[in-house]
Amino acid sequence: MPKQISSSLTVLSVSDVARSRAYYRDVLGFDVTDWWAQRDGLSGLALKLHQSPDPARIYPNPPEPGSELGIDVSAYVDTWAALDSLYEEFKSKGAVFAMEPTIFADGGPWKEFVVEDPDGYHLAFGGVDGSRAHCSIDPHIQSVFLWVRDLNRAVERYSQLLGLEVRKQDRYGHLHVFRLDNGSELMLDSNGMEDVLIAKKGPVLFKLSTYDIDQAAKEAQEIGFDIVYGIQRLPQVSFFNIRDEDGNTIMICQEHTGV
């Protein structure tokens, strides 16, 4: 069965939502909106910060038996090198630590530190120094680049395709970044592309998922994408490819549940 739950968010009731948003954004490096605060995408560390109707009634988790600290949110970090880098980043921005980095022999060994937010909530960051510690390359695709000739037009079209807001803070000169829900990024880059010829044919560059293949095809055409060929319907998946005006080809795919 294909994955049905793509992400979850921990809800924290806070005494001063503006103060909390500023702390998570400016100190902990979260992407903060009116809907969530997330670090490394909604499938990374994602929270909802809700204003408590009574600022005096904030209840962080108490310690479990045998522990000195209660933990409200736990985040896993793949390697100790990444964990140390995260700690140094938080420290340089003035984060409050309820526990400095500590190595626990049982559990891997496990290394962890704990950050305290303005309401006393404790966020634990930890992990084991896994078998890939010798490798400096993180085995995750962080970003996908698409070369486009008209950046403003491409940004508008892809924002409609993905259902994402166009934000000023995501524009970097000739580059625009869409931050996707799984933590990866789609980067549209127009640098030096004004006079580049469009390739008549190219490979599929990446795949997007849909829950309604027919509606997705209708929407893509209405936005202005060309469908390279019609919907291919197989027992386990249905898919089609779209092509933008710059020659970039993308697959749209629906997995069929219960097959």
UniProtKB/TrEMBL annotation:
Q: Which residues form the signal peptide?
A: none
Q: Which PROSITE patterns match?
A: VOC (PS51819)
Q: Which residues form the VOC domain?
A: 6-128, 140-255
InterPro entries (UniProt xref): Glyas_Bleomycin-R_OHBP_Dase, Glyas_Fos-R_dOase_dom, VOC_core
Tell me which domain of life the UniProt entry assigns to the organism this sequence originates from. Bacteria
User: In this record, what's one Pfam family?
Assistant: Glyoxalase
* PANTHER family in alphabetical order: BLR2520 PROTEIN
Q: What is this protein called?
A: VOC domain-containing protein
Organism phylogeny: Bacteria, Bacillati, Bacillota, Bacilli, Bacillales
